[in-house]
User: Fold this.
Amino acid sequence: MTSHTSDLVHKQGLQFFGSVNASISHELKNIFAIISETAGFLNDLTQLSKQGKPFDLSLLENCSNSIAEEIERGFDTIRQMNRFAHSVDDPVNDIRISDALTLAVKLTGFLSFARKTHLKAPLENSSEDSSILTSPFLFQALIYKTLSALYRAMDPKAELTLAVKDTQSSGVTVIFSPDPPVDLTDFPDPRIAEVAQALNAAFAVTDTGLELTIMNTKPY
Amino acid sequence: MTETEKLHLLLVDDEEKFLNALTERLKLKFFDITPATNGEDAIEVSKKARFDVAVVDLQMPGIDGVQLLETLKKSHRFLEVIILSGHATVDTAVACTKLGAFKVLEKPCGFDKLVETIKEAYESRLKKKFENDVQRMKKIQSLAFGQSPLGILRELNKMDDNQK
Assistant:
């Protein structure tokens, strides 16, 4: 690991790790808040029943369905948290692009300013098994930061589509297409550019959005 | 609080299930609830209706809790706003209080505590409104001396600030 990359992991990497954990804990709190209020409402209905006051029985079904759905949402959040935690297991590894993008979309989905995002499947000009040898953690950071920057630039009702194509050389290109398109004149900011440089990746602003090409190479 | 004297509450949270469950529970406490899933809708309904207290989530897409707090306090002088935050830090609490929030509660805060805080906020609103009414009454009484009927009307018109 070069000293520059080591600095990058320590500065931006830790900040990224912290902000992802903060958004996950916020998501879990929301889930607990819903379960707590729904359980409280069930208790209120029980009290009404004890007092002989009638209520619509479908409310009970709605409550139990809501609690079950939130528990599943909680499990899914913890699954993403676990996958993200394992992204630091290996400094360099072969990663499946579709898995990494799915995780990044789910993690950014916890942000309050996230926009509706679609992952094109099967991926354009590419197999679903497209993979690349790189730093899993920094790649996750790069995609997460790119998605966050795009979401901030997009209208609240705008939607984003992600696609992947294999490059002629050993690498892949991730295509970000916001609908409607956004002004990307100032993209990427210096922090995103720094991570991209460490990963031997390059951005190109196109008429419809953004292309990120990353080469199959060791960043360290 | 009885059914005849319902407290008008604006409840704003982008977590729809949380909003629905809380709305149903608060209705049982004889609160008149208007739920909104975003800041934009909350501003729209606040233009058409009078509210005593608003409970607002801090983190929402689009207009967030801080922006909504500022907008509501500008247009509704006596409205008390309670902020619900997923991660209430001291900085958040100070910033919201400076903007006029009645209290910042960490989510989930417990239903009984929320109800108690809503009641305290309602009492605060009534007290502020009463003090304002007393001041207005004093001004009106002072107008009765040495003013022509038209002059009194002009002064009364100035005092009618149409505040909610």
About this structure: The helical segments of chain B are 16-27, 39-48, 65-75, 90-98, 111-143, 149-159. Chain B touches chain A at residues 14-15, 17-18, 21-22, 24-25, 28, 59-62, 64, 86-87, 107-108, 110-111 (CB under 8 Å). Residues 3-135 of chain B form a domain with the Rossmann fold fold (CATH 3.40.50.2300).
